[in-house]
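Quick one - inputs below.
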Amino acid sequence: MSMKNVPDIVVGRLPLYLRALSFLGEEGRQVTSSQELGQKLGISPAQIRKDLSHFGEFGKQGTGYDIKYLSEQLRRILKVTEEREVALVGAGDLGRALIHYEGFAGKGFRIALVFDSNPQKIGQTIGPFEVLDSESIETIVADRGIEMAIVAVPASAAQDVVDALVRAGVRAILNYAPITVKVPAGVQVQYIDPVIHLQKMTYYL
Amino acid sequence: MSMKNVPDIVVGRLPLYLRALSFLGEEGRQVTSSQELGQKLGISPAQIRKDLSHFGEFGKQGTGYDIKYLSEQLRRILKVTEEREVALVGAGDLGRALIHYEGFAGKGFRIALVFDSNPQKIGQTIGPFEVLDSESIETIVADRGIEMAIVAVPASAAQDVVDALVRAGVRAILNYAPITVKVPAGVQVQYIDPVIHLQKMTYYL
DNA sequence: TATAGTATGTTTATAATTTCACAAACGCGA
DNA sequence: TCGCGTTTGTGAAATTATAAACATACTATA
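Output:
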């Protein structure tokens, strides 16, 4: 239960555990086991136990894990106990879909600001948001102390947007643009590109 | 250059290499090196060379890689030389965004059919598509011989949709629903869930 | 209270992945 | 043509990740 130097790959699985636990909890279940979780996720029970052991002891021998308790602990470890404000850049089709997406609720995130650079979109209202000028990212995001952002702009604009976000103090970026962006050390980037995922699969067809 | 038993993790990086090469090509570049590619992708040059070595010899010592040639080879290896028809299930906000997304063009994929189960949406026209009844997935997808699908429906409907797709002969599924689905051996699933990606990052904040 | 059945947390072993290091080969300029 | 700087492809070494195995602890039941 070191809590220090936990491998990235382990941290990366914790959200999956949390998601599976949420489902079990919604089904009214109280207790589960590494075996059941593993089966649901396609991960070996031993691996789940080992992953969790990096952070402490959460189960009870002979019984398993209390779903509510383990969920709380994972939320604490992942620091998603409170909802964080996230800035969204890009009010195109994807941006709109993200604005209307209900899956963020209760998972630790809430879109708080929406930016776009298209003069036709600036000032428009989308859902509960007024679209702000991307030029103001640096000031507004910094003022609000927002440290996470979602980038949903074309690849050609992504690096500039990321640069502005970084200057605004953002330290974690989810990038939907199909391009690897440069960020200074200490800023994290995750990528979502459907083409990459699809191409990974065609190899096996 | 075995071509057999290439690790999954290696196959998973090939699309990234291809994407980076495409950008370089669009910039008018003719030649690159494992070092340059690695720098752009945040991957070590040695790893890139080793990954490629599973499939053959594509570079020239002292020079590097011909961008056009290596791109062609990667497309061949990944089997994305022709455009494949992809069925999209779910005509909500996300489905609409995917329909209008221009990033599939030239990358090996083309959305060919759109399904939804909402009677209000069935028959509607979205872009070039008439929305078809999800009930007909099994027959229509099978008839067209489509073997890839994108699932963009709520979590509660995802497993049923996946089951129908599998019965229709689909062997590769990109799942946007935030739930791990069960599929028979031989059917691949890739997941895209922004919450998972965001939660991976908050740990480090 | 004793016993059988479970499931954890951890240690040990196995497997996979990444990095290193270097010979071989190419291009270019003198 | 020779030599220098460069870059590949690859086997060996180092690192990291996964799986197996097991002692311990808990529940339930008789």
